[in-house]
Automatic annotation (TrEMBL):
SUPFAM superfamilies: NTF2-like
Taxonomy, superkingdom: Bacteria
Sequence similarity: Belongs to the UPF0225 family.
Organism, as annotated: Agromyces mariniharenae
Protein name: UPF0225 protein FYC51_18505
InterPro entries: NTF2-like_dom_sf, SEC_C_motif, YchJ-like, YchJ-like_M
YchJ-like middle NTF2-like domain sequence ranges: 41-133
Gene3D superfamilies in UniProt: 3.10.450.50
Length: 137
């Protein structure tokens, strides 16, 4: 979690993973955020990116964003608290696929109000690594 400030939660490896996979953070998204492994599927990359938003790891988000759509910088708001992720649909995105789509709804609280972000995200696998491209239009 390279740039996470004290304002962001810092789960321990034995805490439940923020992506709600049912695994502990160290065995799930923590290994991807820590650089120990690359996400083998588009869904796992999307889940790890969600966890990166939770813990404030903008460096991981930028590193996993496809160069064709990646912003030059990303500033995360520590007042934005992400608390639930629901994966709605997956298309392709397996270990042998070249592309995939993962549709999700992520729930947050900001300034005392609840909200949600619903997106169908496009991913590509190049050189054996998955990257987030952006929302499917």
């Amino acid at each position: 979690m390279s740039d996470a400030s004290a304002a962001f939660p810092k789960p321990s490896p034995s805490d439940r993973c923020p992506c709600l996979s049912g695994e502990v953070f160290g065995a799930c998204c923590g290994r991807f955020l820590g650089g120990a492994a690359d996400a083998p599927t588009a869904e796992q990359l999307m889940r790890s990116r969600y966890s990166a938003f939770v813990v404030g790891d903008s460096a991981y988000l930028l590193a996993t964003w496809h160069p064709s759509t990646r912003p030059s910088e990303l500033e995360l708001d520590p007042a934005m608290r992400w608390f639930r992720l629901d994966v709605v649909r997956r298309e392709r995105g397996g270990p042998l696929d070249r592309d995939g789509i993962v549709e999700f709804t992520a729930y947050y609280r900001h300034d005392g109000k609840r909200g949600e972000q619903h997106e169908a995200s496009a991913f590509v696998r190049e050189g054996g690594r998955w990257s987030y491209v952006g929302p499917v239009s």
